[in-house]
Amino acid sequence: MKSSSCKAKGRKGQQDIVKMLLEAFPQLAEGDIRSNPMGSQGEDIILSPEARKLIPMSIEVKRGKAINLIKACKQAEYYCKDYMPVAVGRYDHDKQWYACVRLEDLIRSITI
Asked: For residues 28-37, b (16+ Cβ closer than 10 Å) or e, as one string?
């Protein structure tokens, strides 16, 4: 697959996640959650301060035929500051997105 095709697929994946988050948090505007341009360093999903209050996560998005969500979670952890690193991924011909988080973060989030 060409590099441009891979980037387009990744960009579409990021846009899918932005759309899902905006639907889940209708109180946020489109500018509050946006996709980081492909090839840029940092988090894949950029959150405004208002969005960060509701979604305290650093999100890494992966889409492809073979996805290593643990490696992607480590990548999210690298760019993370004080937020929960989360990797989300989807196989090419699957419609379902999955998320990977550190177990201690998951436990903390359900015991608060």
From this structure: beeebbbbbe
